[in-house]
Write a structure and sequence with these properties.
single chain; 3 helices
């Protein structure tokens, strides 16, 4: 289960901490207990990152669906001839 503190982490913060956890695990030199604690923390951070990415994907999908429903905006030049 993810704590309230983890839920308040931004994507970049969680990603950077996850990178540090992985670096420490790969470097070795930790006890089994420390390694397990780092691994558990890494799993929590990965869940935080996944939730952020899933939320971003949902927002992007919703925006694209809305654009398809309403059509291109009046200021969108994508449908005009680019050779002009």
């Amino acid at each position: 289960m993810t704590s309230k503190v983890d839920e308040a982490l931004g994507y970049e913060q969680a990603r950077d901490e996850l990178i540090e956890v992985v670096r420490r695990l790969e470097a070795g030199g930790t006890t089994l207990e420390q390694s397990l604690a780092l691994w558990e923390r890494g799993e929590e951070l990965a869940r935080v990152c996944r939730r952020w990415l899933e939320g971003a994907r949902a927002r992007l999908d919703a925006a694209l669906a809305e654009e398809e429903r309403t059509g291109p905006s009046a200021g969108d030049d994508s449908g005009e001839d680019a050779s002009r």
